[in-house]
Design a protein that fits this description.
The protein has 162 residues and is α/β, with parallel strands linked by helices. It has 8 helices and 5 strands. The chain is globular, with a radius of gyration of 16 Å.
Length: 162
Amino acid sequence: MKPQNKILSREELRKRVDDWRRAGERITLANGGFDLLHVGHVRYLRAAKGLGGRMIVAINSDESVRALKGEGRPIMPANERAEIVAALADVDAVIIFPELDVRAIIREIRPDIHAKGTDYTLDSVPERDAVAEYGGRIEIVGDPKDHSTSEIIRSRLSPRKS
């Protein structure tokens, strides 16, 4: 499937999830800003896909990234971030969402598994209440949080002082 065909509206995502469920597939949801895709993102998404079923990635809109990370972010616009993530073989669908967290999408599609990166614990996942409402499962996946876009910007892309 072409990456562009994996980027869905909310209505398209609900329909696709319904189709997958009718076919007996499980649904896994991962989310984040995915600004400047790096190896930590790839390992997180690969581990989430390894939990089984169809893999949906919810990407924060430009406005929500700016609210969460500050002025100057995101580096890349949401449509480009979505296309890059959709090009990954482990990803079955991508949606861009405007909220600061992914609770609304969780409530809409009720993923079997909500995968979060290792910068979270089961107790610190902001959306754990929404997942608990319908009996879903949260899994912490990926490698240790040794990579971050903010750190790459700070250490590699900012001008160095002499």
